[in-house]
Structures are given as C-alpha cells and as structure tokens.
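Record ABC transporter, 414 aa.
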Amino acid sequence: MIVFRLIGESFRFALDAIRQNKLRTILSLLGITIGIFTIIAVFTAVDTLRNKLQESVDKLGSKTIFIQKWPWGGFGDYPWWKYMNRPEPSPRDYEQLRRRMENAQGITYEAAAQNRVIKYRSSSVEGATVWAASADFDKTWSFELQEGRYFTENESKSGTPICVMGAEIAEGLFGGGAAVGKQVKVMGRRVTVVGVFKKEGEDMLGMSQDKNVLIPINFAKGLFDIRNERYDPQITVRGNDQVSLEEIESELQGLMRSIHRLKPGQEDDFALNKTTIISNQLDTMFSMVKIAGWVIGGFSILVGGFGIANIMFVSVKERTNIIGIQKSLGAKNYFILLQFMFEAILLCLLGGLLGLLFVFIFTQVFTHLLDIEIILDMGNIILGIGISVIIGSISGFSPAFSASRLDPVEAIRS
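=>
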C-alpha cells in the first residue's frame, strides 16, 4: 500500500508541476519526444522494409541454390576480372546434374529474354519477359495458377509451342476473358496458352510472374541462343527439405567441379548463389541504418535528459520546505528519493508516449495517404517505453538523491 501511495503522490506532484509550468515542461520534454520519435520511426521503417524484403527473398526458397557465372554480393573490393572468363552454365551441366544429383527436389535450366512484345490479334503487351525453363520449373519455383495448367514432361522434351503467361499479360491481351487455348505471338512464333499465373503484384525485389511468359526450354532453342550471356542462363536447384543447405551446397560444388574437370586446388569457375547471401547483406545494411538512428536520436534524448534533470532540480528547490515537513513527520530518505525518481520517470514516459504517438501518426499517414504500409509493432513500442524509463531514472537520480539528503530543519527554514 505504501508503494502504491508513493506512486500516486509522485504522479500527482508530476501533474501539478506540468499544470503550473506548462511551457517549461513542454520545452523540457521536447528533447525526449524528438529522440524517441527519431529512434522508433527509424526502427519501424527499417523493420517494415526489412520484413518486406525478406518476404521477397523467402519466395526464392531457403533450400534453393542458383548456379550462375557471377556471384552475388558485388560490393567493396569486387574482383570482377576473375569472373569475366568463366563459362555460362550450359545444358550439358544441367543434364549431368539432373542425372547425378541425389539431394534435389528439382533442377531446371533457365534463360530469359527481356523486354519482348507479346501479341494477340490487334492487341499487344510490351515489356514482357520470355522465360524459358525445363520441366522441373514447378518444383524449383513457388507459384500458383489462376487458370489452366503447367506443361508436361513430354511437352517440355519435345519443345511443344505452348506457354504459361502472367496475369498482367493475360489481362492486356484478352481483357479478362479466357486465355487458355488461344494462340499468341511470342518472338515471331505462334504459341498456345495452356495456363495463366495467379496475379502476385511486384514485390520489393521486383520479382513477379505477372509480366512473364514461360515456355519450354527446348522450344526456346529455336527462338534465341539459350547459352548466350545476354539471356542470363542459370541452373536452379531446390534441395530436399530434410537435407541441410550446407549439405546440398557441398554436393553441388563437388558435382560441378567434376563436370567441369577442375583439378584439386583450382578455383571454382562457377558461382553457387543462395538466399542467405542476400539476407546477410540486408542484415549488414539495416544494422548500419539502425546505428545511425541511435546516433541521431541519442543526441536528442541526451539533451532531453538534461532538460528533465533541470526540471527536477527546480522542483526540488521549489518543494524544499515540503520535503523538510515530510522528513520531520518521519519520512525516510528512500521515500523522498523514490518520490522524485518516480516523478522524473513519469515525465520521461510522457515525452516518450508523445514520441510514440507521433510515430503512430507517421505510420498512418504513410499507410493510408501514400499507400506504403508501415507497421509500428509491439517490440518498438516496448523499446520506446524502456528508453524513456531508463532516461528518467538516470536524469532523476541526482536531483532525487540531493533531495533525500536534505536536513529537515534547514529544509523547513528555507
């Protein structure tokens, strides 16, 4: 009961101080409010962006490895000259891997022709990507169909002129009508539509099936050189779920070195790219942004902390005689100490809550007016409140300690 009474009295004293000195209090709390707003706003924006990017990365698959000429992560001292003479992944590499790989759900050879025009009678859609892939594309990539089906193994092997197209292309060509069974022109050849990808919308990494036209790789051989570097050939391998990524990568590396007949000690002439590379780069980048947020917000909080300490010293001075009366009536030193500590913490909490309120308004503006979804999660709310409590404790300790050490006689006489 004594503790609750102490908290109640401290809360009343804090409200009285705010009511009697509104301008002084607002100016003192401004530093805390700005600091909490800066830190939590940065963290909220970073966390939201990080989660959106991670969702895009996760679509690639945690057990998926891309065999390519160039390694991902070309930052800093990037020795690009080492990779210039590397061979592109070839259909032969794909066939050898498919025959010898044990821990794979699916293996596909892929190549993509960018910025193509797809035509149907008088309608056309520009900027489409013609994506050629072997039969296991449905095993190495995650997608859904809103209409029709995926092509069969026999259709892939025989190079049947068929395609599965993105929802945006189907909408542009057929205006919402049925697409399956109709013939469209892809790179000058007539192709029958057998399926339509479900509409996805573009994610943070720009990956989407909405403007893709997927054709069998053996049919694509008659349209463009699938081994040419300009078409970004790659081999995509999705490992078995029960096998670790490291084990899949190790098996792939051994098989590729064997296929390319590399001697022991000789460097790999291929890159095994995986989603963890992107995730690690994202972690590094966003860690730097968060540090910047701490630095910028920290200065505001530091100034705000001095403001709170100043208010508390003034409050102790104004209530010196009340402190003397309390001590003469038997109040212990810790009672006086905690009384002013609670008051400082409550003042900082008020500033912190104002900062969090401004962050919430900021998220609502971006979400509803600018159509950019930003979410203030509970973790950042708790962090903002925690920082406020810590700053209040630090700022209020010195004034509270000096108040608790006052001599009751001298305090009453003041």
